[in-house]
Amino acid sequence: MTRTTNNWSLFGLDLTGAGRHLSLGFKQLLYDYSSPLLKKFDAPIRVFQGDASTLFRADRPFEKSSEQPNLCAVVLPSQAVLLKTISLPSKSEDLIDSAMAMEIALSSPFAESETRATWRVVSRSKAVIDVVLAITARQFIEGALTRFDADGPTGESGQPEVWALSSDGIPLVFEGFGNEARKRAYHQLLGKTVAVIMTAWIAVMLSLWVLAGVTKIRAERLDAELVAVRSQSEVPAQQREQLQLERARLDVVEAAIAERPHYRYWLTISPHPHRMWFILIR
Predict the structure, then answer these.
(1) Is 30 exposed, middle or buried (0-12, 13-18, 19+ CB in 10 A)?
(2) What is the pTM of this model?
């Protein structure tokens, strides 16, 4: 019996799905419907549905804006799109591409070469995720784009995005039809923001480094001055000790004179130092 080994195991942990989980987390951070980055940095877009138009931002209606968007999207008619809501276990979200490919193959009423589909996770819970699947045919997309080019407003730049709206009004964007321009604008604004944050962080770190260097230099200078002051104070300290010693000797002499106040005797005594100290001790 052959025993297989897992080469993606580290300390007993199975890392075979680590790459999928990392990719899923990155997509959720950037493109999820509830992503704070998408709400903050997504570019506004003018969405046309029939004769009406609405301003969207972060895939939500956005009425207040001081800028005119240069991006646009066209919404497919509801009768041209097959919408389906699917509930999947939340633990299998990293395999959603494979699950949706199987669901499209089973649910599409169109030929495989004509089928165009997209999906989006619209809600999450601890156990279940809800995914809205939109299926249409290539001819419906081409027809909507042709009508938009013929009857749409002038002044819109680039190819419009192609959308389908869920029953809750959440956009489902068909890939490959102009959506790269909005992604590019989103990535550029996000990249500029990250660059500004990194520049500010580097500036703060450099400032702290310079401050630490200046503080270190000042501390070394103060240490050197302290050593110099200590070395200079040793001479006065030695002189003070010498003065104290001489004062003690003088006190001894004064005490001896006070006990024997015979000044004429002291003046006529031999000045020999050894004899002098012998007499004083007596």
Answers:
(1) middle
(2) 0.64
